[in-house]
Structure formats: structure tokens, C-alpha cells
Design brief:
heterodimer; A: mainly alpha; 3 helices; B: mainly alpha
């Protein structure tokens, strides 16, 4: 049987293509749901197995496994704490010119650390 | 002296006439001159929307400027005849090509949309999708709009390949729409890109009425269970597994999915931070400029000012609405099989139409209108990124059938 090219398609072919396509989209994504569920089971089991050991070593929270909401709560609490701690400054910046007379104590040349002379 | 001057008068008048004819202004008085003028008006309008109202400004602005450049008579920056019949006519290319013709090769050869996908992948957090894989189903349901519109476009007289390109607007994914259209029906690239990006910007206007219409207040108040934490290893394995599975099942979707997952792996593996930052910023920005300009350049008066464009704009909004409704209805259906306390808020179903992250934000906003203490954003990000994968899969399927 000769395969029709897309330009010659009629309603029958269009309906079939639409139906098959949507079924394929669902098939592929359902397959991915299955794979990811499997992944989830494996990793949740791994995390559950690793938890007592972590607690015993005192490392309860593993880096990267802190929940987003917990991170947000900690960040907010820190922000509130830091803003409450911070004293209010005048916010006025003043530049005072200071006359520096030459002295060997602030001279760059004399202030350079001499390299040790290895012999 | 006088005789010399009068003898050359014919030469002067001919030269001036020739010069006047060579200017762009004379082009406005030719057969399609009014069309060019109208398209310049459209370009200014789109630029107004992008600058004044910030409608997807990154792309709408560059598209509008490309549209302006291509419709300036005599500028000769873009030539449709070099890409006539869906092929690059290399024999006359070098002799005739303008700047935008060279840049358009990136669209024609499917390079820019894939590079954009690398950047999108590097900016996307697939964590909510990994934590709740059921979101993939909502992403699939939202693709119904693509295939319904595919049939609708055929009913309106478009060819099957054109119908496929118009349907993909419902995927609400700009690079995917551009990729598929440049492969199937490049003659519609301008109107389809403008429609896709305009509707993506209008997601907060289009979706909420459909969301409120298809859900009850009780459903909108559903609070979802907190997502489980996702380990780094899962985040690293996810892009690898998805790229391999989809590329094996649908090789035609491999360029898009492969690039999306490459970008994501760069971000998640944590050892190529420099590359990850580059694809998220510099590369993405450069490609957006080229893509926008060249897609806008395809919107010539001949290609844009016809009833087909009107049809595309109408079908595009229909595709969006049907995709939104598809996601919402499947979420409601899934609730019939879920235990109490494990129910899905149907509002997150509408985020399955891609349009990352705008659609997820709309779900969050609508959820908070029903219950201000309800936070749906992270839950909605799952279907949202599943929609990106779903629309790339749908594009791959359409490409394998119609290409």
C-alpha cells in the first residue's frame, strides 16, 4: 500500500494523526511518570536508610536536602534578626582631608618587606 | 557655459530620477508599498506593547525591530526568495543575501531554538517535577489544545503541515513553535511567532477566566501536600534519563529535549558553573537577539497581511484556551482517584501549557485569591516544566508525521 504524503491527507488521515499523536504524548509522559516514580521509591528508600546513620554521627541535615520552605523560613528569620540587631547609622558620609607629613613609618619604599636573603 | 549646462540637463534629470527611485520612500508608492507601510505600523505597535506594557519585551521588542527592518523598502536586508519552497537556495545566496538572510540561517537550520533550549534548561528547576512525577500527566493533558487546533486549522483550509505549525502555538513554548514552523511551514513563521509570544504574554489575561469557570471555590482552596526533598543525585540523573528515553522513543524530538537536558545537567552537576552561567546569560541573550530579529524579518507585508494571519491569531488563542482547559480537567479527574488529603488543586493543571514561569504564577495568584494562605507556586512549577517537555514531545511527534 502506498503511503500518502502529508499534502494529500484528507479528514480521515488528519483525525488518525491527531488521535495517535495525543496517545503518543500520553504514552511517553506516562512512561516518564513510571520511571520517575521508580526513581522516587529508590531514592526515598536510600534516604530513609541513611537517616539513622546520619543521626548517629550528628549530621542530621545533609547539604542539598534541606527543604525549600525550611530554607525560606531560616532566611526570613535571619533577615528579621539581622535587621533588628543592626544599629541605625547616620547615613551621612564625610570625607575629611588629613595632612600627612612624610615619615619613614608611612613610606611605601621603606615599608616594603625585604625578601629574606637565602644563602 | 550656459550651453554646457543646458546640454547636461537630461543627464541631471535622469540621475535625479534614478536616485529618487532608489530611495526607500519611492518603494512606498509601488504595488505592495501600502503593505510595507502597514507592517511598519504593526512593528511600531508591537514595540509599543513591549516597551510601554512590557509584553514579553525580550522577544517582542526584537521581533518588532526585525519586522521594521524587513519592511523598509530598498533596505534589502531579508529576501524571501532565497528561502522559497522551504529550501535554502545556496546557488544565489552569497550574491544576493543581506544581513538578516545570513542570520536567518540559524532559524532555518534549527540552531537558535535549540540554543535557547540549552539556556532554558540551565534556568529550569526540575525539582518539583521530580518530587511529584504525576505532574507529567498534567503537562500531557495541556497538549490537547495542540491537536484540537491542528484539526481546527485543517477545517479552516490550512494544509496539514501548516495546521501542525499553528497547533503548536497551544504548546505556549516559543522556541518549540519556531523550531517546528521553520521545519514544516516556514512561510508562516512570522505570524506564528508573533501569535505565540503575544499569547504567552497574555497568559495572565487568558487563563484566569477559564480557571474560574472550570473549578469550584472548594477545589481552588485545596491545599496540597508539601513536596518531598529531592537529592542532588536525582537532579543529575533526571536530565540524563529523560534525554535518553525521549531521544530513543522520538528521535525527531532529540534536538530540543537533548539541548534542554544538556542545559539542565550543566546547572545541576555543579562542576561547570562557568558554562552554566554562560548559557543562562551571554549565549541566551545573543541568541534571543538573532532569533527575534530574524523571525521578525520573515513578517513581510506579503506574508503577514492576509486572512491566514487572522486565522492563525484566532486559532492560537483557541489552542491556548483548550490547553488550559485540558490541564484543569485532567487535574479534576485525577482527584476522583486520589485519597482525601492527597488531592491536587486543579489550578495547577493550567500551568501545564508551558509559558514558564508565567502560567505557574497565574496558578499561584488564583489559588491565593481563593485562600490567601495557600501557596501553589512550587506545586504548579511541576506541570509547568512538564509542559515544556510535553510540547517538545508533541513537536517531535508532529515532525515525524508531517516532516
Amino acid at each position: 500500500m502506498k503511503m500518502l504524503i502529508a499534502t494529500d491527507w484528507g479528514w480521515s488521515e488528519m483525525l488518525w494523526v491527531a488521535l495517535i499523536s495525543i496517545c503518543l504524548v500520553f504514552f511517553v509522559l506516562v512512561l516518564l511518570v513510571g520511571v520517575m516514580k521508580l526513581f522516587g521509591c529508590v531514592f526515598t528508600a536510600r534516604q530513609a536508610a541513611g537517616r539513622p546513620a546520619a543521626a548517629a554521627t550528628g549530621r542530621v541535615v545533609v547539604q542539598g536536602q534541606l527543604h525549600e520552605e525550611e530554607i525560606a523560613a531560616i532566611a526570613t528569620a535571619l533577615n528579621i534578626y539581622c535587621s533588628a540587631m543592626h544599629d541605625r547609622e547616620s547615613e551621612v558620609l564625610t570625607i575629611l582631608s588629613i595632612k600627612r607629613a612624610y615619615s619613614p613609618w608611612n613610606s611605601k619604599i621603606h615599608g616594603l618587606t625585604q625578601m629574606p636573603d637565602r644563602k | 557655459m550656459w550651453n554646457l549646462l543646458t546640454a547636461g540637463s537630461d543627464f541631471v534629470s535622469d540621475s535625479l530620477l534614478k536616485f529618487a527611485e532608489s530611495t526607500g520612500v519611492a518603494g512606498f508608492f509601488t504595488q505592495m508599498g501600502w503593505g510595507s507601510l502597514a507592517m511598519i505600523g504593526v512593528a511600531f505597535f508591537l514595540m509599543y506593547l513591549a516597551i510601554r506594557h512590557k509584553f514579553e519585551p525580550l522577544l517582542l521588542f526584537t521581533i518588532a525591530f526585525g519586522m521594521l527592518l524587513t519592511n523598509l523598502p530598498g533596505a534589502n536586508l531579508y529576501h524571501t526568495e532565497l528561502f522559497a519552497g522551504g529550501h535554502v537556495h545556496w546557488d544565489i545566496f552569497v550574491a544576493n543575501a543581506g544581513l538578516l538572510d545570513y542570520l536567518y540561517l540559524g532559524v532555518k537550520l534549527g540552531i537558535y531554538p535549540c540554543l535557547i533550549f540549552v539556556g532554558v534548561g540551565a534556568m529550569t528547576d526540575f525539582g518539583p517535577l521530580i518530587a511529584n512525577p504525576k505532574s507529567f500527566l498534567l503537562g500531557a493533558a495541556a497538549q490537547i489544545g495542540i491537536f484540537a487546533t491542528f484539526l481546527g486549522a485543517y477545517a479552516l483550509g490550512f494544509t496539514p503541515t501548516q495546521a501542525g505549525s499553528i497547533g503548536i502555538i497551544g504548546g505556549a513554548d516559543g522556541p518549540t513553535a519556531i523550531y517546528l514552523t521553520s521545519m514544516l511551514s516556514p512561510e508562516l513563521l512570522g505570524p506564528i511567532a508573533v501569535a505565540a509570544y503575544s499569547y504567552m504574554a497574555l497568559v495572565p489575561v487568558i487563563q484566569p477566566p477559564i480557571m474560574r469557570l472550570l473549578t469550584t471555590k472548594k477545589e481552588r482552596k485545596i491545599k496540597m501536600q508539601t513536596l518531598r526533598p529531592v537529592s542532588k543525585l536525582e537532579r543529575i540523573l533526571f536530565p540524563l534519563v529523560i534525554a535518553v528515553i525521549i531521544s530513543l522513543l522520538l528521535p525527531s524530538a532529540a534536538p530540543l529535549i537533548g539541548c534542554l537536558m544538556l542545559g539542565n545537567l550543566m546547572k545541576e552537576c555543579g562542576v561547570v558553573d562557568r558554562l552554566s552561567k554562560t548559557v543562562q546569560n551571554e549565549l541566551m541573550n545573543i541568541v534571543v537577539i538573532f532569533l527575534g530579529l530574524t523571525v521578525g524579518a520573515t513578517a513581510t507585508a506579503e506574508a503577514f497581511l492576509n486572512f491566514k494571519t487572522l486565522g492563525i491569531l484566532v486559532l492560537g488563542v483557541v489552542a491556548f484556551c483548550m490547553g488550559t482547559a485540558g490541564g484543569l480537567l485532567l487535574a479534576k479527574l485525577m482527584n476522583c482517584f486520589c485519597k482525601e488529603g492527597n488531592k491536587i488543586n486543579p489550578l495547577i493543571g493550567s500551568a501545564g501549557v508551558s509559558a514558564v514561569p508565567m502560567a505557574a504564577r497565574v496558578s499561584q495568584t488564583e489559588g491565593q485569591k481563593a485562600d490567601p494562605s495557600n501557596y501553589l507556586l512550587m506545586h504548579a512549577m511541576g506541570p509547568n516544566v512538564a509542559g515544556v517537555v510535553g510540547s517538545a514531545v508533541a513537536a517531535g511527534i508532529l515532525l515525524s508525521f508531517l516532516g
